[in-house]
Amino acid sequence: MSFFPVDPVVFSLGGLHVRWYGLMYLFGFAAGWGLGRRRASRSVPAWPPTAVDDLLTCAMLGVIVGGRLGYVLFYDLVAYIREPWEILRLWNGGMSFHGGLLGVLLAFAWFARSRGKAFLAVSDFVAPLVPPGLFFGRIGNFINSELWGKVSDVPWAVVFPGGGPWPRHPSQLYEAFLEGLVLFVLLWAYSSRPRKTGAVSGLFAAGYGLARFCVEFVRVPDTQLGYLAFGWLTMGQILCLPLIGIGLWLLFRADKEM
């Protein structure tokens, strides 16, 4: 299989280039907003629509700022110190989920305090809204021909521009399926019934961490980092370990309270 001929640029207006990578983020935020409005009307107690709008606006800023700074700090600090203006060029890719998560958690903390809500109640509300954004983000990675997998002879292997002449695992699509579709179905179904505070957040953290940890085995590690521990652990896997631990702890804690 060859890389399908999708131009990363959707269209251009003069010097302005509209890219699929950016559009995927917009699609993700739009999906989260629509699902959030639907979820708000079914919550007990119900969330007013304006609260959903404010929360998702804060979360969007947290994702963008945290995701970019997280990538800079966790994955390629030296290169960005050398060329700091590259930090602003989001259209070239380079967003960290774990950095985005930290940014979102800070946004949740501010929102919870300003609205008199519990932090975990806020994160439980938002957790099922996140996987669609992850799905679209990974599709953006695929179109951008970045974060590809290892060389493989599976029938669906893809030859990526810049990845040499060898067919590779489309690891971005694996992540889109597991982190996006599968995790969304699990969270939406699980949260459809009343749960103890923190349980939905715990399922999200553990589910995402396990999915990402597994896919990293067939994904090429970042060139500037390589494998960081035991000759096979990547930065993504190392960052997922505490996430899995926190998720399991929240689920155990909620189970003990039932």
UniProtKB/TrEMBL annotation:
Transmembrane stretches, start-end: 20-36, 56-75, 95-112, 119-139, 173-191, 198-218, 230-252
Q: Which Pfam families does the record associate with it? A: LGT
| GO MF terms held by the record | phosphatidylglycerol-prolipoprotein diacylglyceryl transferase activity
Which keywords does this chain's UniProt record carry?
Answer: Cell membrane, Lipoprotein, Membrane, Transferase, Transmembrane, Transmembrane helix
- Where is this protein found? Cell membrane
Q: What is its EC number?
A: 2.5.1.145
Q: Which GO terms describe its cellular component?
A: plasma membrane
Q: Tell me the enzyme class.
A: transferase
BP GO annotations = lipoprotein biosynthetic process
Q: Chief subcellular site?
A: membrane
Binding residues annotated for a 1,2-diacyl-sn-glycero-3-phospho-(1'-sn-glycerol), in chain numbering: 138
Pathway(s) served: Protein modification; lipoprotein biosynthesis (diacylglyceryl transfer)
Its topology with respect to the membrane?
Answer: Multi-pass membrane protein
What this chain does, per the record? Answer: Catalyzes the transfer of the diacylglyceryl group from phosphatidylglycerol to the sulfhydryl group of the N-terminal cysteine of a prolipoprotein, the first step in the formation of mature lipoproteins.
**Family (UniProt):** Belongs to the Lgt family.
This chain belongs to the protein called: Phosphatidylglycerol--prolipoprotein diacylglyceryl transferase
What species does this protein belong to?
Answer: Candidatus Desulfovibrio trichonymphae
Instruction: Give the lineage.
Output: Bacteria, Pseudomonadati, Thermodesulfobacteriota, Desulfovibrionia, Desulfovibrionales
